[in-house]
Write a structure and sequence with these properties.
By secondary structure, the chain is α/β, with parallel strands linked by helices. The protein has three domains: about 15-25 and about 210-305, Cobalt-precorrin-4 Transmethylase, domain 1, CATH 3.40.1010.20; about 25-110 and about 310-320, Rossmann fold (3-Layer(aba) Sandwich), CATH 3.40.50; about 110-195, 4-hydroxy-3-methylbut-2-enyl diphosphate reductase, catalytic domain (Cobalt-precorrin-4 Transmethylase, domain 1), CATH 3.40.1010.20. It has ten helices and twelve strands. A five-stranded parallel beta sheet has the order 10-9-11-1-12, sandwiched between helices. Strands 3-2-4-5 form a four-stranded parallel beta sheet, sandwiched between helices. The longest helix has 17 residues, at about 25-40. The protein is flat and about 60 Å long. It starts with 14 loop residues before the first strand and ends in a 16-residue tail after the last strand.
């Protein structure tokens, strides 16, 4: 137009930002390796109490190799080999395994074991323990079992506002390892306001992998129109990643593989972030990225907040 400025609408390329760190953490990798090595060394079947980690792809793969997942130790024949999941178990479960003369392998994540030890020591020292986490989660059930008469579960700010303890000068808090950093901070702030003498854990209970994945999502959220979190619905840390993305103002969806993508509305999304919960295999991430490529997202970028180098040792009986 004469005397004016011509504006040209430039359509952004559809792209995927693959977020790192993502996927398997050291505790998950260790737990899965324990089951696989046990199958090689001792042969099938190897029984696993509950899900070794909360991911359906991992469970299906291990079942195909000869693992049998059970809800109760009564399903394991006497003398059978049982693996305790990465989420940990209460002392009463270990005792039952001994009484049934089961050969137990412990795949509890070392960071979960740390919280167990903290609960056990606090209970012995006469503290009231306020355990921040989700009721019904296997990790919380295991930690609670270390000092059941001394422990109360705090699942919300409302719980923090109403909980009562015998002696406010002898109270401590612990947390589930897979919580939202922001939600946990809000709950702990409420507990500190009510109980100024409350004793914190010696070091943060929320695990490094949970923290790193949440911080990476926060860092990349402003670059994305939509964030896909790959993980199973019963994976606490995966669900938390969705919440973290949404709290950052970006649409986010939890999917457990490429198949659910067909039902996700990405019509207005030009830039999609992809991350994965700590129990999600990398091959599933690759399949989701391939599916996005088929939907026209051909520009694939990587965003790395940091490079994780954490490794946990295997149980002594499986090291050689």
């Amino acid at each position: 137009m004469a005397g004016g400025t011509a504006f040209v609408s430039v359509k952004r390329e559809k792209k995927v930002i693959v977020i790192n760190p993502r996927g398997f953490c050291a505790g998950v990798a260790r737990a899965v390796d324990i089951v696989k090595l046990a199958l090689v060394r001792y042969g099938a079947p190897v029984y696993v109490r509950k899900q070794i980690v909360h991911n359906r792809h991992v469970i299906s793969e291990l079942e195909a190799e000869g693992a049998i997942f059970v809800d109760a130790l009564s399903s394991v024949p006497p003398g059978g080999r049982i693996v305790f999941s990465a989420h940990g178990v209460a002392p009463e479960v270990r005792l039952e395994a001994q009484e049934r003369q089961l050969n137990a392998l412990d795949a509890t994540c070392p960071l979960v074991s740390k919280v167990h030890h903290e609960a056990m020591h606090l209970g012995r020292q006469g503290y009231s323990i306020l355990l921040v986490g989700h009721r019904g989660h296997e990790e919380i059930a295991g930690t609670f079992g270390e000092a059941p008469s001394s422990t109360q579960i705090i699942a919300s700010c409302e719980d923090a506002d109403t909980v009562q303890v015998p002696d406010p000068s002898r109270v401590a808090y612990l947390t589930q390892t897979t919580l939202s950093l922001d939600d946990t901070r809000r709950i702990v702030d409420r507990l500190r306001a009510r109980f100024p003498a409350i004793r914190p854990p010696p070091s943060q209970d929320i695990c490094y992998a949970t923290q790193n994945r949440q911080l990476a999502v926060k860092a990349v959220a402003a670059m994305c129109d939509h964030i896909l979190v790959i993980g199973s619905p019963n994976s606490s840390n995966s669900v938390r990643l969705v919440e973290v993305a949404q709290s950052g103002g970006v649409a986010a969806t939890l999917i457990d593989g490429p198949e659910p993508l067909m039902s996700v509305d990405l019509s207005t999304a030009r830039s999609i972030g992809v991350t994965a919960g700590a129990s999600t295999p990398e091959i599933v991430v690759e399949r989701v990225v391939d599916a996005l490529r088929e939907r026209g997202y051909r520009d694939i970028e990587s965003f790395e907040l940091l490079n994780e180098r954490v490794r946990f040792a295997l149980p002594a009986e499986l090291r050689n």
